[in-house]
Design a protein that fits this description.
The structure holds two protein chains of two kinds. By secondary structure, chain A is mostly beta strands. Chain A contains no helices and eleven strands. Chain A starts with a strand and ends with a strand. Chain B is mainly β. The chains are: A mainly beta, B mainly beta.
Chain lengths: ~110, ~110
């Protein structure tokens, strides 16, 4: 199993550009989520999904969109990037039943100029 | 924000010593977990303690939970250089949202 994979590893954007951060998992987990990590702030939940076709907002959803068309994939879209979105983004997944442990991807480092 | 806080923010110890870090949180919880993050990597789950448990062990890890004080501690015994990492607590209620603390950066000096 590859676990949770994220692409790209690093991205530089100009203010106003859009992009999609990819996340995929091969563990057949129903629950997937996106976090951003900023210095001194820990991880903050952006959006999450409890299954294909179902998404919900987390603590800091503004400026981000998500969709969940398959169990495996959970892309995060930045519609119009802003410097405040410079951060490290982590995708995570966990099974709906059988525990609360989350499995994290390696992260995407995003710089918005 | 329901985010927790870890204390201390940074900790530096000699190899072989014990490391203790604390987590405080704000609301009632169902579970509390501890995760480790090596530099530039994703988080890795270490241990989970349920709200009705007071102490849990896993190898060199010991976790305590005091729900009356809304706090938890993580003890790493006989630390090794490989334990150098950031450590985060994460809480959840019966819903689908998880709240991470701000992290403790641990440096173990060989």
């Amino acid at each position: 199993n590859a676990g949770v994979t994220q692409t790209p590893k690093f991205q530089v954007l100009k203010t106003g550009q859009s992009m999609t951060l990819q996340c995929a998992q091969d563990m057949n987990h129903e629950y997937m989520s996106w976090y951003r990590q900023d210095p001194g702030m820990g991880l903050r939940l952006i959006h999450y999904s409890v299954g294909a076709g179902i998404t919900d907002q987390g603590e800091v959803p503004n400026g981000y969109n998500v969709s969940r068309s398959t169990t495996e994939d959970f892309p995060l879209r930045l519609l119009s990037a802003a410097p405040s979105q410079t951060s490290v983004y982590f995708c995570a997944s966990r099974p709906t039943f059988g525990g609360r442990t989350q499995y994290f991807g390696p992260g995407t480092r995003l710089l918005v100029l | 924000s329901q985010q927790g806080e870890e204390d201390p923010q940074a900790l530096s110890i000699q190899e072989g010593e014990n490391a203790t870090m604390n987590c405080s949180y704000k609301t009632s919880i169902n579970n509390l977990q501890w995760y480790r993050q090596n530099s530039g990597r994703g988080l890795v789950h270490l241990i989970l303690i349920r709200s009705n448990e007071r102490e849990k062990h896993s190898g060199r890890l010991r976790v305590t939970l005091d729900t009356s004080k809304k706090s938890s501690s993580l003890l790493i015994t006989a630390s090794r250089a490989a334990d150098t990492a950031s450590y985060f607590c994460a809480t959840d209620d019966t819903g689908n949202q998880f709240y991470f603390g701000t992290g403790t950066s641990l440096t173990v000096i060989p």
